[in-house]
Structure of Damage-control phosphatase ARMT1 family protein:
Amino acid sequence: MPEATDAPVIMGNVPGSYALSVFRERHPVLVRQVRDALPYSLDRLRALDRLLDEVVRDVMEPLDGSAHDHAAWARWGQGRFGGRWVDVPFLWGESYFYRKLLEATGYFGDGPWRGVDPFGPVKQAELRSAAVDDELTALDHAATLPEHEQAAGVLLGSLWGNRADLSHAITASGGRDRVTDLVVDDSALLWSLLRDRPPGKVCLVADNAGRELLPDLVLIDHLLDRGLAAEVVLHVKPYPYFVSDATPADVAESLRRLAAAPGQAGKVGGRLWRAMGAGRLALRAHPFSCAPLPYSDMPDDLRGDFASASLTITKGDLNYRRLAGDRFWPPATPFAEVTAYFPGPVVALRTLKSDVLVGVGERELAALDATGSPWRTTGTHAMIQGRA
Ligand SMILES: O=P(O)(O)OC[C@@]1(O)O[C@H](CO)[C@@H](O)[C@@H]1O
């Protein structure tokens, strides 16, 4: 087995790879969708057209010198501008794409589009959907179940909520069934970290808004309400990212949606609303959450936050890539080994939508590969993977 540290970084340019399909197929579609989502003015439409051209021609241009974070991106992207989009590490190239998309829409500019979420229309449609009504109504039945089933239910709800990812939906063939047998199931570890010690601080690093964030909030309510956490810090993105990633505005909208719902959902929403006001639920939108870097490069203040938590729960595929490192790890590499740098207990809840994979033995891997399905990238499979 190769040394884990030799694991190659996932690049965008490998023929036939998932990463290449994201650059070649997903990004052009996304620019076109954003272009049509809001009544943008001519200058914004032109900027979006320039970005589309840049992506299709496959020549990466630097951020405009007037951008507030131009210096940071110039440093991170040194030696990459003028080259092909696909010739950079996958994680870096995707992050930069979303940053450029916001630039084109005027999100950080001085004009009228400042602060307008280009993905707002799709996020709002999802939050208003009948599917969300059904999911909130289902909480009434869940509340009648025995305690251990409720605990398992809120955890699985949050885990599978990660399938609701509007960026993945763009190129996923859709409608694929979930495979309920988890690829890795460390849920016993998660519960023991919460139950076998006095309640402490739990950090939940969120992923998508809407149909993922709602069950995340239900999980948070469970932890606070059952005394499994004294406080929860909910980490979200400071600005729109990867289409549906949750921002503070999305948290506010989801809490309003919950609090306005009848039955159990309304009770959950009311409790969380009060917890926010009382400081038992805090919101953090650290700039590093949108950085094109792995968590091993996190700044000291963020490290301090996770270090003071009795448990950090990370949600979703992108957070998993950043936690483990966006590399083709030998799949049997222990999760504890690749996350040894993380300053405290950490559990990842993830449906699999990219090639990064650790902690899976040869026999399990062979059995999954033998199914012949693209199980590593289509969101059909999920894992709860952690270390104390
Ligand atoms: O973090 P999430 O929402 O679970 O997934 C993000 C995602 O859809 O985006 C990337 C491709 O663009 C993949 O890593 C992953 O499939």
Observations:
- The chain has two domains: 4-118, 129-387.
- The mean pLDDT is 95.
- Residues 22, 94, 162, 165, 167-168, 207-208, 242, 316-318, 321, 353-354 surround 1-O-phosphono-beta-D-fructofuranose (CB under 6 Å).
